[in-house]
Amino acid sequence: MWDKLLCRLCLGVAISLLTLCGAPLLDAQSEVPPAVRFIRFVGVKSLDAGRLEKIMETQAKRFRWGQGAPLDETVLRRDVERIEKFYKSQGFYDARVLGHRLIPLGGREVILEITVEEGRPVIVESVDLTVDNAPLGPWHDDLLQVIPLKPRRRFTSSDFYDTEKRVREFLSDWGYPRATVETQGIMDKEAKTAHIQVHVALGPACFFGPVRVEGNRRVETALIVNELTFRPGERYRAKALHDSQKRLMDLHLFTFVDIQPQLDASSEGEIPVSVVVKEAKSQTVRLGAGYGTEDQLRGRVGYEYRNFLGQGRKLELDARASSRARFFEGRLTQPHFLYEPFRLKVAGGVSREMQESYTNEQYFFRPQVTWQVNEHWLLNAGPNVEANRLLDVDLTSQAIRPSDQKGEEYYVSSLVFGATYQRVDNILNPRRGVQFLQRLEWGGSLVGSEVAFVKLGLEGRSYLPIDPLGVLAFRAKWGSIAELEDTARVPIFKRYFSGGSTSIRGYPYQKLGPLDDDGNPLGGLTLLELSGEWRFPLKNSWEGVLFVDAGNVYENRYQLLWNQLRSSVGTGLRYKTPVGPLRLDFGYQLNPPDQDFFNRYQIHLSIGQAF
Fold first, then answer.
1. Does 581 sit behind a cis peptide bond, omega within 30 degrees of 0 on the bond before it?
2. DSSP secondary structure letter of residue 404
3. DSSP secondary structure, 425-489, as one string
4. pLDDT digits (tens, 9 = 90+) for 478-519
5. Is the dihedral of CA 89, 90, 91, 95 positive or negative?
């Protein structure tokens, strides 16, 4: 006994001495768990493996810096249960996780491999729809299209529970907000089939009743009512409530808009509507500053007066300055111009552009009538009046044309027609959707212009998410100018230029295309730009980019020489901010022109995506 006590005492003294001397202690419980670098699924054929990985609590750090995520066996057991439940919600009632294994990668990093046996899914064999008090035919066919469950497709719990909601929304848009929907499913788990029965009771057809507006003090009730996309007595449409709310918010007169049908207070067929608003501040002052490699230091001061002189008018004053431009503009927007869908936007001001080859001073006046056809299409048309003066032209004497002489003054009067289609998830940083922009400008003696021309520009953009690998983005832009009447050459400030952070990124600003003997850009009458990039996630708010650009500027109208396309490739970084991503791009020219006026490597720093 004394021997044991003596041994323990000696061991305690030794441990104390080692501790005092700074020697490390071995802890039997200090074994570090493996770190998950990748997650791999075996046997997954019908579902997306990436979707399975997203529902797991265990996460791999595939595109992250540092070490992978430590593996927790307790968490992994919950993940196994979660995977099996998810499979059942997708119609795989026999699915089960057979097991998992860890494949060493080096150090303590491993691949977590999970083996799944899916089994046969449940297939929808039939969808039976009955509608009370309505004949078959159009009603039956339209409602069947709305139901997410389809014969010969896999049964899912989400589709089953969404059926009632979608049918009610559809009927509410057709004037039946009181419709009731019952959905039943008969499932044969042995045969792996499901029979779906949907019963609809339409109820009475309903119409919009009186509108009550609350919460407005400065904004006229008549203006709010005019913005609504429905009128009392019209057939009830649920979508009209949503569209009206968006239109009111787009006025920027309110911080809150709530439009609700009063179903409880309505009679059998007439539904009153309550509109509750909270007014925003009527005046705003904005200050901004920034830096970019092209315009260097830039600053902005803006003033906005909403509901200027009533009737929803908006007055805006905007002043900007940088090394490239000085600009002051006033804008007045009048909603409900002449006819309800139209708005009048009148802009006027003065600008001075200090571009690579010229400095132009311009006084302008641009009234435009806009028509928001729907939530995606916007059309605009109106006159454009400009008084231009070329203050300086930095070209060699051999390259300067009579139309580009220093001190030349031009009065330009034209008509502008534009169309914009926009269907993206985020204006500042799109990840999904498409955009289309078109602008046609015509000027001639008939409208009093000293320069006769027609200028057409087309641009399309597309964004395709490839989760979890990021986004593929594409852009194509084309434009051309044709001189008309006795105009031999449009002045330099109307011509096309390319190169820079938002076009062909392997080239300096405006220096892709015709150049004079000193490397100054001359501009051209035809422009073509093509771009594609892969935006992939890095860590936290950081994003990486790989891109390829191609394009050129051609001297003549409607000229397109594919063998003269200039291409560049590059990489970049993005840091996400509330006002758009901070952008750094590095471009390299693949087939530079023969002239050696600038470096084949270009660096661009700006804010916002390139497109």
1. no
2. G
3. S-SSS--SEEEEEEEEEEE-GGGT-SS-EEEEEEEEEEEEE-TTS-EEEEEEEEEEEEE-TT-SS
4. 999 999 999 999 999 999 999 999 999 999 999 999 999 999
5. negative
**Token pair recorded at residue 44:** 């997954």
Helices (H), 157-215: 157-173
Over range 48-67, report the average pLDDT.
76
The helix (run of H) or strand (run of E) holding residue 303 is: strand 296-306
Q: Please tell me the distance from the alpha carbon of residue 101 to that of residue 116, in angstroms, as a whole number.
A: 12
pLDDT digits (tens, 9 = 90+) for 548-569: 999 999 999 998 888 899 999 9
* pLDDT number for residue 131: 87
Residues 6+ apart with CB under 8 A from 570: 505, 506, 546, 547, 549, 585, 586, 587, 588
d(CA 189, CA 203): 36
Residue 557 β-bridge partners = none
Say what the pLDDT of residue 397 is.
Answer: 85
What is the rounded CA–CA span in Å between residue 171 and residue 516?
67
Listed residue (526, 528, 530, 527) closest to 476, CA to CA: 530
For 236, the token pair is 């009830």
Helix ranges (H only) for 267-401 are none
Calculate what percentage of the chain has a pLDDT beyond 90.
69
Q: How confident is the model at residue 399 (pLDDT cuts 50, 70, 90)?
A: confident
Q: Is there a contact between 157 and 226 (Cβ–Cβ < 8 Å)?
A: no
In which band, very low, low, confident or very high, does the pLDDT at 15 lie, cut at 50, 70 and 90? very low
pLDDT for the residue numbered 344: 96
Per the listing, tokens 């092209």 go with 294
Spatial CA neighbour of 492 closest among 395, 403, 397, 362:
403
pLDDT of 8 above 80: no
Long-range pairs for 592-595 at CB < 8 Å and ≥24 separation? 592/566, 593/515, 593/566, 595/515, 595/519
3-class SS at 29?
Answer: coil
CA angle 39, 41, 45 (to 5 degrees): 145
Q: How many other CB atoms sit within 10 Å of the CB of residue 233?
A: 10
**CA 143, 146, 149, 151 torsion: positive or negative?**
positive
